[in-house]
TrEMBL record:
Domain named HTH cro/C1-type: residues: 15-66
Protein name in UniProt: XRE family transcriptional regulator
Any Pfam family the entry gives: Cupin_2
Top-rank taxon, per record: Bacteria
TM regions (residue ranges): none
Keyword annotations of the record: DNA-binding
Amino acid sequence: MDEQIRQIAERIGGLRDALDLTIEEMADRCRMTADEYRRIESGEHDIAVSTLQQIARRFEIPLDVLMFGEEPKMNSYFLTRKGTGISVERTKAYKYQSLASGFRGRIADPFIVTVEPKPDDTPIYYNTHGGQEFNLVIEGRMLLSINGKDLVLNEGDSLYFDSSLPHGMKALDGKTVKFLAVIMQ
């Protein structure tokens, strides 16, 4: 996990270097503080996929380039067989598996997200990003908190929401939860 985050951070630093921007200029263009940006580029902290998506869209590069270091190649279709999508484990309790990483010019980013259970007193990490998001629970149960409203989603339940609202989730019942997340800008 730490190695993957470090590699992502290096790719972001490489992008900044290629654009010949200072940390302050890059942070400003990404609509964040210089300290927030420094933490991202340091590779010592988890980087939210929504933040990566924000950077990718701001500089008009595929999200896959930042996440996986690969340029999408397909523009007609892209097939992902069960269990074969490129994955990134952002923390020990959070794993994203991209389902469309090889499709060039996509307008949505679908992922299978696996969230490991944490102690009940662990606070939820909240996230915001532009656009909209769709979540469909495949396995387990999860608490999804959106803008202060707590919703329990069971297997087969889905939710479509404005992802600019603060949102976060956690696995329930001490079991792993898997869900389909589709992030649209």
